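Quick log. Single chain, no ligands specified.
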Amino acid sequence: MLLQEVYFKTIILPTDHPDLFSAFLLDFTNEAIEEAKAPNLPYAFFGTKEGTAPLPKEGFIIYSPHDPKPLLKALEGFCTELSSRIGLAVGFYHHSAQHENKDWIEAYKAGVQPIVCGDFAINPSWAKEPLNAPICLSLDPSLAFGTGHHESTRLLLQAFSPLEVGGKIALDVGCGSGILGLALAKKGAKVSLCDIDPLAIEETKKNFSKNHATYEDLWLGSIKGGGYDLIVVNIVASVIIGLYAEILKASHAQTEVFLSGILDQHEQSVLKTYLKAFNLKRRTQENEWVCLHLSKS
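-> predicted structure:
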């Protein structure tokens, strides 16, 4: 097969709801995308708040053999529909460039380097110099999110590090790549995981196998069962709030709950819901992302 001579590198910086943008990009491109800090480049803007919406600090990079015009057109429609539904002007900055197709795979890999979060080292399979930590995990970026490179995942891995979870029953809700359940399993917890995305289920299976770890149960769907000692949710604030009744039902008097994926502007809404039954034990934040550790006791 002849190698295409060029590829396109497109940077998308959403002004709000990056979680929904990531889901849209994955669905539309059907390719792996990279979460990244915003490079210093000239950006075009789509939306109604140009000049008032600050340039986001991070976003997504899409490497593709396809011209980005159809993607940008679809994103405009997505933004218009999203803004209408939530009653908030949502836009995005973007920059596209064409490159010679001689090293884009290596360029993509170069953007995903080993990292250490607390007691955990996360190494992609292509790492020439993998990092060491008390617990080393091997994960490659895929269509299911969660490689430890995003603040919301890093905050949870750091929160898990000092915990003694051996023998405890844990549930990872919206498991994505399975990284959080995998981290808890490696610390000795009896982990169950769930996600509404079939791709996430397959990625979780692969990542547990690759890391020689086991889980108690893994299913397609939302929360089921109960009596969990730990419940971990790394999704977005609106979904976390919507899961409150299910989490309350699945918990017991000593259950500890870890909530992440929360933008700081939505933190109070989450707390207003969860403090009805839980106490806030610890709050951590990296950039605009907040992680909440709660318990009933």
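The chain has a mean pLDDT of 88.
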